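Batch manifest, entry 17 of 40.
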Amino acid sequence: MTDRVHLLLIDDEEGMLTSLKKLLEMEGYVVSTALSAETGMEIVQNDRIDLVLCDIVMPDVSGLLFIPRVSRRIPVVMITAYASIETARKAFKLGARDYLVKPFDLNELLIVIRQNLNKADARTQIAPADGISLQSADPHFLKMLRLAEKFSATDSPILITGESGTGKEIIANHIHSHSSRSSHPFQKVNCAAIPETLLESELFGYEKGAFTGAVRSKMGRLEGAQHGTFLFDEIGDMSLELQAKLLRVLQNYTFARLGGTKDITVDCRVIAASNKDLDLLVSRKLFREDLLYRINALQIRIPALRERKDDIAGFVHFFLSMFNAKYSKNIAAVDPGAFALLNGYDWPGNVRELKNCIERAAIVCEGDAISISDLPESLVRWERSDDDVLPPSANYRSEYMRKLIVATLERTEGNKSDAARVLKVSRRTLYNWLRDFRIGHE
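Output type: structure tokens
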């Protein structure tokens, strides 16, 4: 048994069907296929199917006749290369949930699938935060997210670990928003970004005259988190001296402002985050072991982006939509060659690096699709040094796109202008695709 979403693809074009199956499996779905409507009906009767994608033109039974037989129980998305208003009207009248015209953008297909799945969809989508979406199809990431939501019901300190750019602050904010403290402040301090001489006063505040320049009293950030949540971001960069002071505070959540004598008690939930190995720092006497025990009652590790490659397509689409709006662009897709490069790269800077990459590409892109030439030179250099190794998802996507381009050129008898119109891309994008896929159709 599996709790993953189960899709059924019905299409009489076996090559396309096979490529699309592999592509969707790499996106995390369970996929069954059928070359005829009758075979598809047998699968529906014998298996639990969450959504059907069915071609309208079939050799045995029209897809339009298939819709009413299953649409009351299962959402059906119709696919056709011969679009017309009348066909669409009939499809919707018979119970189709949505309608895609070949050739369709792969990201468009994924969006249509997600939008039309039943509520039992195993995927999770969370509102974007700080410009980074927590949408995911990766089982490890979703397991981590469910754990974070369970931890949100407690008041125990939480340690979030993960590489730089994985979204530790976003997970901390997510925990806060799901907790009973969500209506109170979420405060944070980046221990690596604030000089040590200022960090103590930022945390605890100070009284007037505590030091030169303290012309008025100031409340610290910790005090500002009353009844809420406080995040110590990159706590591994905190000095040993300040670690000792923080440990004393966390014993009873009482402290005094710099230059003050009055005890202040704060009621807040503490979350710490670090991209460093704190156990290693403890062994090197760079981090207090007793403080680690105090902040590590519950621990969450965020997987790196290279561990959740199936999520790259979703992130690319999300960031592309964001930067289309920001820069008044109308970029509809990413060229297959460029996507293969994005999908194969290791992303040492994780989601943050991917976001910056897509923003750069959106700014320099002059067409309606991002190509390899729009990507940072560092990625292109990496691709050239390792161009014989591509991940399976990139290979399957490329295989599908190559078949689609060749089939379109055959339909247009080699006319590239007509093919570009059918594919809904510019001639420049089509020529980039022909080059990337080494398609020599004359």
